[in-house]
Design brief:
With 436 residues, this protein is of the alpha/beta class. It has three domains: 119 residues, 3-Layer(aba) Sandwich (Rossmann fold); 110 residues, no CATH class; 140 residues, Muramoyl-pentapeptide Carboxypeptidase, domain 2. The protein has 15 helices and twelve strands. The strands form three sheets. Strands 2-1-3-4-5 form a five-stranded parallel sheet. Strands 8, 9, 10, 11 and 12 form a five-stranded antiparallel sheet that branches. Strand 9 and strand 10 form a beta hairpin. Helix 7 packs antiparallel against helix 8 and helix 8 crosses helix 9. The protein starts with a strand and ends in a 12-residue tail after the last helix.
Amino acid sequence: MLKIAVCDDNEEHISALRKMLDEWSENKPFAVVIYEYQSAENFLFSYPDKPCDIILLDIEMKNLNGMELAKLSGGIAVTGYDANEDTEVMTAEAESVEVLSNDNTNNTSGTITKSLKQILGEGNEGVYKVISSAGLTTIKLNQPLTDGSDEDKDQDGLSDWDEVNTTLIYNMYAKYNHSYTPVINSSYLPTLADCNDYYQSSDSQKVCVESGYEIFINKNAGMYYQGDKEKAYAELSKLRILPICSDPTKPDSDGDGFWDCVDNNLPQTYVYEINDPQPLYRNKIDKYTIERLRALHPKAQKSFLEFILVGQVQLSDVTIRITDHYRTIEEQNELYAQGRTKPGTIVTWVKGGSSYHNYGLAMDIAFIDRNGKLLYDDKYYNILKSVYPDFNLEWGGEWQETPDKPHYQMTFNYSCSDLLKKYNNNEVDDNGYIIL
């Protein structure tokens, strides 16, 4: 956070300087808080309790003027709009004080803004603040967000524009009577308060955003406002926030093991927040299924996931669960021994190396009803019969000799003997998966 103090005995000057600072800070990757003082005496009385990083002082003030105050505080003296030649002479004599000239010309605003940028640094185009489940976070894009642009910072298959909550942004356009512009300027974004109000009005979107909002306010209240949450809210709720549906800077912004373009294949049920440990579709996919999908071959994960997502839409009263996924060749041999040389019933017909499970290219599924009961019901497998072909999968339910309805596999046109040969030749990646 950057804290700036502004001291001027003219309210219009304070408003003008605040506007310039607001414009400068729009795209900064940090929060900027501005404290206002209308006299040198008021500043000296209050400042010890509110130390700031930068102090901007008017030169011509009653009693103690800005030049004297600058020497006491180490601030930057800024001439007023009514500055005269004598004032300019004073600034030249103040060797230890940097002065920004505001000489009531047509170039005044540009002069001060340019000088501020020289002192504070240029603004960064494409930098936006976002509220996350962890508080305030900043993201940096390659360019400002632009309606219809194909720019894809994280190369996840979704453009930056597609990962933003444009509905909320354009709600703010209407609220503040902004005219349409394809380039999203930070000054046109909703404030932190706007975002919080919006999220609280949507029950399904409330939890993650509200928790992050509270974390941000509470943290700063403790650090900068002596624990006064109301005061922190009054200051910080004015920050402009980019509302996002997924993080445009990360291909897998929720860390569920699957790219955002996969997660976004279905309409979102709530607005995603950075650092939310849950997947985008946590209410659509069983958590154990997510964990087991991650163990499958990386090249097969996307197809298996999309099959489950689309299949889940067809099943309103049960949830798909992966019951079996990757197993090693050694584990396959152990399973094969069951019911043959070891106690138990026969559960597989093939030895190690002869199952696509051994290469992370197969999964078995069942269904969880609303009571948590695991079901192997033909009617649900039959519903999915029309779904799996769209994802280049083979279904064990179609096998003639030994049908296996829970089983789905993706072969990539390799036989198990081909894959076993690759395995024996050590044609595997760093994680032990066969190189396809």
